[in-house]
Design brief:
The complex is a heterotetramer, with one copy of chain A (about 750 residues), two copies of chain B (about 90 residues) and one copy of chain C (about 250 residues).
Chain A (H helix, E strand, L loop, with lengths): L4 H6 L4 H11 L5 H10 L2 H4 L4 H4 L9 E3 L6 E6 L2 E9 L1 H6 L1 H17 L4 E11 L5 H21 L3 E8 L8 E11 L14 E6 L9 H4 L20 H16 L3 E6 L4 H13 L2 E5 L12 H6 L5 E6 L4 H10 L5 E7 L3 E6 L2 E7 H4 L15 H5 L13 H10 L7 H4 L10 E3 L6 E4 L6 E7 L2 H6 L1 H18 L3 E10 L6 H21 L3 E7 L3 E2 L2 E2 L3 E10 L16 E5 L10 H7 L11 H16 L5 E4 L4 H10 L6 E5 L7 H5 L3 H7 L6 E5 L4 H11 L3 E7 L3 E6 L2 E7 H17 L6
Parallel strand pairs in A: 4-5, 9-12, 17-18, 24-27
Antiparallel strand pairs in A: 1-2, 2-3, 3-6, 4-6, 7-10, 7-11, 8-10, 9-11, 12-13, 14-15, 15-16, 16-21, 17-21, 19-20, 22-25, 22-26, 23-25, 24-26, 27-28
Helix pairs in contact in A: 7-8, 7-10, 8-10, 10-13, 19-20, 19-22, 22-26
Chain B lengths: L1 E8 L6 H12 L5 E14 L4 H16 L5 E8 L7
Antiparallel strand pairs in B: 1-2, 1-3
Chain C lengths: L1 E6 L6 H11 L3 E6 L10 E4 L20 H10 L4 E4 L1 H8 L6 E3 L7 E9 L15 E8 L3 E3 L2 H9 L3 E6 L18 E5 L5 E4 L17 H12 L3 H9 L6
Parallel strand pairs in C: 1-2, 1-3, 3-4, 4-11
Antiparallel strand pairs in C: 5-8, 6-7, 6-9, 9-10, 10-11
Helix pairs in contact in C: 5-6
The structure holds adenosine-5'-diphosphate and magnesium ion (MG).
Chain lengths: ~750, ~90, ~250, ~90
C-alpha cells in the first residue's frame, strides 16, 4: 500500500521510513502507531543523522559512573558522591514563545537530573541571539532571560553561570541551551528502566493536555513561513508543580520501592514508556484512558504524543504501591496507576481496554533509522579563511579598540542578565556569575565543583574541527582557572539542516575535533544533546557546539576568582601570545568580519597549562586567575581589574609571528593586545610567591612572565616598553558593566 | 475615554496559576468553584474622539504589546463615560 | 535553643535557614511541614524564602491559609520570636502578622545581588546584638519586594519605630539610588507592634559564612539565640538596652 | 455560571507594571494613551443555582483570596449564560 503522502509529510517520515515501519510491525500501522513512530524516529529522539558521529566520542574513564544513554551522565567525585549533569537545547520553542520556551527548557533539564536520583544544585545556560539593536531580538532575549529566571528562581536552583553570543545568523533562530548539575550518592543512582513483570507503572504530575503535540518533530524542522501553523504547540511551564515533583520523587527514591523512573519530555508518554521498557529488557502496557487529562475528548494519539510539562513515569515494586502513593499525597500529588510491566518487550497502548497500538520497543529505539548523510566541505570556507590584515587599512588607536570591545555585548558584563537569576539560593555558590566559572561547594564535604559552558562559534565556523577543540579547551580552562580539575563534559550540538552536505560536514568535523580534544585533555563526555535544523529561510546558524565542563576542587577553600585581590600583587601571564587575529572579537567588532584561521591549539600545551592552574590554586599560590579568550590579553587584563577596585600597570611583549605586511600596516600593537591565542591565562600572586609560581610554571613546561602589578586607578598597558593604553579603570568599568543594560533600559527612565 | 482590555490564555493553553488558585479555593471550602482561569486586565485611558477610535487604538496596543498572540487572546470593552485621567 | 523552619510547598530557602541555624550556629533546628499543627516546642520560628505555592496569585497569598499558620499566629501572639525572610516576610504580610503589602519591583525585574541595609532598631529579637545604625551586607533575591503601605500606616510604623531595616549604602546612607526595588521609605524590613515578629526581604541566612561573600547575617540568628537564652525576649531586651549583650 | 472578577490596584497605589506598559506604548507611538493600569482578571466557573448565589461566592473568594485589600480592590460581573465547565 502507498501511504498518504500528506500524512507522512505531516509526520516527518519518508516513504522508506514508512516501509520500515510496515516491516517492523508486519502490517500497516494505525494512526496512533504512526504518530508514535514519527516522534520516536524524529531527529530529536532518534539522533538518526548524528548517531554515527557521536559514537566516536570518548565516554569512558575511571570516574565515569554513567555515560551517554541515560537521562544524564554521572562522574564520581569521591566521598561516595556523584556529580550528575547534562545540557539540553530548547531553541525552537524559545523562538516561538521566548518566555515559555526557555522556562520549559529549564524545567526539562532539571527533570533529567532528579530522575537520576540526584538533587539538582546548579544551572547554567548558553544563549545565542541576533544583534541587540534589533528590537525583536531584544524582546526575544528579554523573554528568554526572564523565562529562565522565572523557572529556575521559583524552583530554587541557582543559575551560577553561562555565556551569551550574538550573531546575525541567530536572529530568527536563537539558541537556548540549559545545563543542570545535581549531586547524588554514587551507589544510589537511579535509572530509567522498567523491569519485573507485573510491577505497576505510575503516572504523576501535571495533567495531560494537547500541549506541544508534534513538539519533538517541530524541534527537528526548520523555521519557515509556515511557522504560524505550528504555533498551537506552545507549552506552559509550571515551576511550582515541578518543585513538588522534585521533592516528592527524591523522597520516593529514598525508599527502595522504586524500580525506575523517567520524565516525560519530548515525545512524552511515548518516549518514556518505550525507552524504559527497552532499557529494562521488558515491555510496558498502559491504558491511556487512565491518564489524567486536562482537556476533554483527547484521543489516544494525542495522549501518547502530548508534551505537557512536569510529568513523570515511575515503575514501582509490586506490593509497595501504598507507600509511594502516600509520599505523593503528602505533596498534594496524585500518582495514578496507568499500566504494568510485561515480559514481551513491546509497548502496548490500550484505550478503555482496547489495544490501539502495539509495537516492539526495539523498533522504536535501537532499530530506529540511522543515516550516514552525505558530507561536503562548505564553499564559503576557502574564502572566509583568507585574511589580510594589511588590506583592512590602518587600525584605530588601541584604547579606542579596547573601549569598543568592552562595550560589545559579547564581551560586556552580563550583569543585566545574571542579576535576574537567583544565583545564591541553596547557599553553596562560592563563585557567582561574572567572576569566572560558577563554583558551588558540596555541603558535607570539603569539595567544590566548578562549572563552565563555552563555545566560540566563529572559530567553529572558520574551522569546525579546531573550533570545537577550542570550545572544549576554553570550557576546561575556565574551570581550571577557578582551581577545578576538569573531570567530565557534556555537549549540546547546535547546527543547521543535516540534509545539506555542508552542514553535515561541519557537524562531523566538529564532533571529531571535540572527541580529539576531550581525549587529549582526558575529559570524558558523559552525555549531551543534538539540535539540528537551526536555520531560517535556508540559512544555518553559526555551527555552535557548546561544551559544558565540570571540574572538581578537592578543597573548596582554595577556590580562585577572576578579579584581582590586592594592590601590589604581581600579574603573571601564563602562555604565549602569537599574532592570531583570525575569527577574533577584534575583527568582529572593529571590522564586522568573521574571517581568517582560528588560533592554533596545542592540546598537550593546553593540558599542561590547565594542570598548572589547578596545581597553583590548590597550593594557594594565586590571588586571582582569568583565561584570555575573546578580546585577547587587553580585555582579559581589564576584566581582572573590574569588580576589584584596582587598576593595573603592565608591560607586555609583541605577539610572535606577525607578518611583515601587517606589521608595516600598523597592526603590531593590535596583535599583541587583541590576539586570541589559546592556552593563556592571567594570574595574580603576592610578590613573595612570584618565584614559586615561576618555578612551578617552568617545571610544568608552561611559559610564564611577570607582566605587571596590581594597583592604582588606571589600566595601563605598554607594548615593548611603549604605553599604548592608559585609561581610567572606573571609566572602562562603566562602559563594560552597563553596555547590555543600555540596550534594554535606554528608553525607560529608572523611576 | 477608557478601554478595558482583558487578556486571557487561549482555552487549550495550560494555566498553572488559575489551576493553583482553583485548588486553593477548594481547600478553603469553595467546592462549587469548578474551574478558575487567570488572565490580565488593563485599563487604558485614551484621548480619542470616538469610541471606535479608542477601540482601534486599544486593539493595536493589545496586538503589539498587551497580549502575546502565541498563547493569549484578548477582548476589549469601551467605557466612553469613564476615565478622567488620574 | 530550637529554631523551627516552616516548609511551605514551594519554599526553597528552608534548608538554607536550617543550615544556618543548625550547622553554622550549632543550634537545634527542625523543619516543620506546613500541614503540621505543632511547632514542636520551638523557641523561634522562621518562615523561609522561596515561592510558596509558586507565588501564583500573589506572593504569600495562598500560604497564609496553611494549617501551621494558626500555630505561628498563636506563637507570635504569645510573644514568641518569628522571622519572615523574603517569601516568609510576604507570607507574614498576607497573614496580617505584619502590616503592608508587596508590589512588583519598580524595575519589573527579579533582582539578585548583595545590598546593604541599615539596622534602624535593635530592640527586636533578631537585631538585639546589632548597633543601631550599623549596616549589614546581605543578598536580596526577589521580584516583588517593593514594600508598600498607605501613608497613615507608614507614618505609624515610623513613629512606633517598627521600621527595622532600610536599604542603604555601605556607609549607611539611605538614598533612592540604593533602593533596589522602590520600597516606600527604603523599607527593607519591619516588625510588629510588640516587636517580636520581624520580616525582611534580604536573606540573612545567605550571609552567614564568609565563603559565600558575607557573614553579616549571622548576627540576626545570634540575636535570636541571645533573646531566647537570656530568660526571654523582654529580659534580654533590658540586658541589650544596657549594652550587656553586645558583641 | 461564570463570574468575572477584576482585581485592580487602588488608585493611590503606584502601579509599576501599568506604568511600564504605558511608557512602552508611548515609545511605540501611542501618545494618546494617557494612562495605563494593570490588574488581574479571573474567570470562575461556579456551580450555583442563581446569579446572586454565584456573586456571593465570587465575592467571598475575592475577599479571602483573590484580592489583597491593602492594595487592591475588585469588581465582579456575573455571566449566567456563559460557562459550560470545560
Ligand atoms: N547567560 C548567562 N547566565 C549567567 N551568567 C552568565 C551568562 N553569560 C555570562 N555569564 C557570566 O559572565 C561571565 C563572563 O562570561 P564569558 O564572557 O563567557 O567569559 P569567560 O568564558 O571568558 O569566563 C562568566 O562568569 C559567566 O558565568
Ligand atoms: Mg566564555
Amino acid at each position: 500500500m502507498t501511504p498518504d503522502p500528506v500524512l507522512l509529510e505531516r509526520h516527518g517520515l519518508t516513504t522508506d521510513e514508512y516501509q520500515r515501519i510496515v516491516d517492523a510491525l508486519g502490517r500497516e500501522p494505525s494512526l496512533t502507531e504512526l504518530g508514535i513512530f514519527s516522534v520516536m524516529w524524529s531527529e530529536h529522539c532518534s539522533y538518526k543523522s548524528s548517531r554515527v558521529h557521536l559514537r566516536t566520542l570518548p565516554t569512558t574513564g575511571p570516574r565515569v559512573l554513567q555515560g551517554p544513554g541515560e537521562n544524564a551522565g554521572a562522574v564520581d567525585i569521591g566521598d561516595g558522591l556523584a556529580a550528575v549533569f547534562k545540557i539540553e537545547s530548547h531553541n525552537h520553542p524559545s523562538f516561538i514563545e521566548p518566555y515559555q520556551g526557555a522556562a520549559t527548557g529549564v524545567g526539562g533539564i532539571i527533570r533529567d537530573i532528579f530522575t537520576m536520583g540526584a538533587r539538582p544544585v546548579a544551572l547554567l545556560n548558553s544563549l545565542r541571539f541576533g544583534p541587540l539593536d534589533d528590537p525583536l531580538v531584544r524582546r526575544t532575549m528579554a523573554g528568554v532571560v526572564s523565562g529562565i529566571a522565572g523557572y529556575g528562581n521559583s524552583i530554587g536552583i541557582p543559575t551560577v553561570g553561562g555565556e551569551i553570543g550574538f550573531d546575525d545568523s541567530y536572529t530568527g533562530n536563537p539558541l537556548v541551551n540549559v545545563f543542570c548539575l545535581g549531586v547524588a550518592r554514587a551507589d544510589e543512582i537511579i535509572k530509567g528502566v522498567a523491569s519485573g513483570a507485573g510491577n505497576p507503572v505510575y503516572y504523576v504530575g501535571a495533567k495531560t493536555g494537547r500541549d506541544g503535540i508534534h513538539g519533538a518533530t517541530m524541534a527537528s524542522a526548520e523555521f519557515d513561513d509556515k511557522l504560524a501553523e505550528k504555533r498551537p504547540a506552545v507549552q506552559v511551564g509550571d515551576p511550582f508543580m515541578e518543585k513538588l515533583l522534585l521533592e516528592a520523587c527524591l523522597e520516593v527514591m529514598r525508599t527502595d520501592a522504586l524500580v525506575g523512573i523517567q520524565d516525560m519530555g519530548a515525545a512524552g508518554l511515548t518516549c518514556s514508556t518505550c525507552e524504559m521498557g527497552s532499557r529494562g529488557g521488558a515491555g510496558v502496557e498502559i491504558d491511556v484512558s487512565l491518564v489524567p487529562q486536562r482537556e476533554t475528548g483527547m484521543t489516544p494519539y494525542e495522549i501518547m504524543l502530548s508534551e505537557s510539562q512536569e510529568r513523570m513515569l515511575l515503575v514501582v515494586k509490586k506490593g509497595r504501591e501504598a507507600e509511594v502513593e502516600r509520599i505523593f499525597e503528602k505533596w498534594d500529588l496524585h500518582a495514578v496507576h496507568i499500566g504494568d510491566v510485561t515480559t514481551d518487550g513491546r509497548l502496548r497502548v490500550k484505550n478503555h481496554g482496547e489495544v490501539v497500538a502495539e509495537i516492539p520497543n526495539q523498533a522504536l529505539t535501537d532499530d530506529a533509522p540511522v543515516y550516514r548523510r552525505p558530507m561536503a566541505e562548505p564553499e564559503y570556507l576557502a574564502g572566509a579563511r583568507q585574511l589580510s590584515l594589511a588590506a583592512l587599512g590602518a587600525p584605530a588607536a588601541p584604547a579606542q579598540v579596547l573601549k569598543r570591545l568592552l562595550a560589545s555585548p559579547e564581551i560586556a558584563s552580563k550583569r543585566w542578565v545574571y542579576t535576574q537569576y537567583d544565583h545564591m539560593v541553596r547557599t553553596n555558590t562560592l563563585v557567582v556569575p561574572g567572576m569566572g566559572a560558577g563554583v558551588i561547594r558540596v555541603k558535607g564535604t570539603s569539595k567544590a565543583l566548578a562549572l563552565s559552558v563555552d563555545c566560540n562559534a566563529r572559530f567553529v565556523y572558520l574551522d569546525p574541527f579546531l573550533g570545537a577543540q577550542h570550545a572544549v579547551a576554553e570550557a576546561a580552562r575556565n574551570v581550571a582557572c577557578a582551581g577545578g580539575l576538569p573531570i567530565g563534559a557534556t555537549n549540546c550540538l547546535n547546527f543547521g539542516n543535516p540534509q545539506r552536505p555542508e552542514i553535515m560536514w561541519q557537524f562531523a568535523r566538529a564532533v571529531e575535533g571535540m572527541g580529539a580534544a576531550c581525549q587529549a585533555l582526558d575529559i570524558p563526555i558523559t552525555g549531551g544533546n543534538v539540535s539540528l535544523y537551526n536555520e531560517t529561510d535556508g540559512r544555518g546558524v553559526l555551527p555552535t557546539p557548546v561544551l559544558g565542563v565540570v571540574g572538581l576542587l578537592e578543597d573548596a577553600a582554595r577556590v580562585v576568582r577572576r578579579a584581582f585581590r590586592a594592590a601590589g600583587d604581581a600579574v603573571v601571564l601564563l602562555g604565549r601570545t602569537r599574532a592570531e587575529l583570525g575569527g577574533s572579537g577584534y575583527l568582529n567588532v572593529e571590522h564586522d568580519l568573521v574571517r581568517g584561521v582560528p588560533p592554533a591549539l596545542d592540546l598537550a600545551q593546553e593540558r599542561r597549562l590547565q594542570a598548572l592552574l589547578v596545581e597553583l590554586a590548590s597550593a594557594g599560590l594565586v590571588s586571582s586567575a582569568h583565561d584570555c579568550a575573546e578580546g585577547g590579553l587587553a580585555v582579559a587584563l581589564a576584566e581582572c581589574c573590574f569588580d576589584s577596585g584596582f587598576g593595573v600597570e603592565t608591560g607586555i611583549s609583541p605577539a610572535d609571528g606577525l607578518d611583515t605586511e601587517a606589521s608595516a600596516a600598523g597592526f603590531g600593537d593590535i596583535a599583541a593586545l587583541f590576539s586570541e591565542s589559546a592556552s593563556r591565562a592571567l594570574i595574580s600572586t603576592p610578590e613573595h610567591e612570584v618565584q614559586a609560581v615561576l618555578a612551578r610554571a617552568a617545571a610544568a613546561g608552561v611559559p610564564a612572565a611577570v607582566v605587571g602589578r596590581v594597583g592604582g586607578d588606571r589600566i595601563r598597558i605598554a607594548v615593548a616598553g611603549r604605553i599604548v593604553i592608559d585609561e581610567s579603570r572606573a571609566a572602562l568599568e562603566e562602559i563594560w558593566s552597563t553596555a547590555i543594560e543600555r540596550f534594554f533600559e535606554r528608553r525607560r527612565a529608572i523611576a | 475615554m477608557r478601554a478595558r482590555v482583558f487578556v486571557t490564555l487561549k482555552p487549550s493553553v495550560f494555566d498553572p496559576q488559575g489551576t493553583t488558585v482553583g485548588e486553593a479555593l477548594h481547600t478553603l471550602g469553595y467546592q462549587r468553584v469548578t474551574d478558575v482561569r487567570q488572565g490580565k486586565y488593563f485599563e487604558l485611558e485614551i484621548d480619542a474622539p470616538s469610541a471606535d477610535d479608542a477601540r482601534r487604538i486599544a486593539a493595536e496596543a493589545a496586538d503589539r504589546l498587551l497580549a502575546n498572540p502565541v498563547i493569549e487572546s484578548y477582548r476589549i470593552e469601551i467605557d466612553a463615560a469613564a476615565g478622567a485621567p488620574r | 535553643m530550637k529554631f523551627a523552619v516552616v516548609v511551605f510547598p514551594g519554599s526553597n530557602c528552608d534548608h538554607d535557614a536550617y543550615h544556618a541555624a543548625k550547622h553554622v550556629l550549632g543550634q537545634d533546628a527542625s523543619l516543620i511541614w506546613h500541614k503540621d499543627t505543632s511547632l514542636g516546642g520551638a523557641d523561634a520560628v522562621i518562615l523561609p524564602g522561596g515561592f510558596a505555592h509558586g507565588d501564583y496569585l500573589r506572593t504569600g497569598a495562598i500560604a497564609r491559609f496553611s494549617p501551621i499558620m494558626a500555630e505561628v499566629t498563636e506563637f507570635a501572639a504569645a510573644g514568641g520570636p518569628v522571622l519572615g525572610i523574603c517569601n516568609g516576610f510576604q507570607v507574614l504580610l498576607e497573614a496580617g502578622l505584619l502590616e503592608g503589602a508587596m508590589l512588583r519591583n519598580r524595575s519589573l525585574h527579579f533582582r539578585c545581588e548583595h545590598v546593604h541595609v541599615r539596622v534602624e532598631q535593635s530592640d527586636t529579637p533578631f537585631t538585639l546584638l546589632c548597633q543601631p545604625g550599623q549596616t549589614l551586607r546581605m543578598p536580596i533575591a526577589h521580584g516583588e519586594g517593593n514594600y508598600y503601605a498607605p501613608p497613615d500606616v507608614i507614618a505609624r510604623l515610623e513613629v512606633n519605630r517598627q521600621v527595622v531595616f532600610r536599604y542603604s549604602s555601605a556607609d549607611g546612607e539611605v538614598t533612592d539610588s540604593v533602593n533596589p526595588n522602590g520600597s516606600v521609605n527604603s523599607i527593607a524590613g519591619i516588625c510588629n507592634q510588640s516587636r517580636n515578629v520581624v520580616g525582611l526581604m534580604p536573606h540573612p541566612e545567605r550571609a552567614c559564612e564568609l565563603a559565600l561573600g558575607s557573614d553579616d547575617g549571622l548576627v540576626m540568628f545570634e540575636s535570636a539565640v541571645a533573646a531566647v537564652t537570656n530568660g526571654g525576649f523582654s529580659k534580654a531586651m533590658d540586658l541589650a538596652t544596657e549594652g550587656a549583650l553586645r558583641k
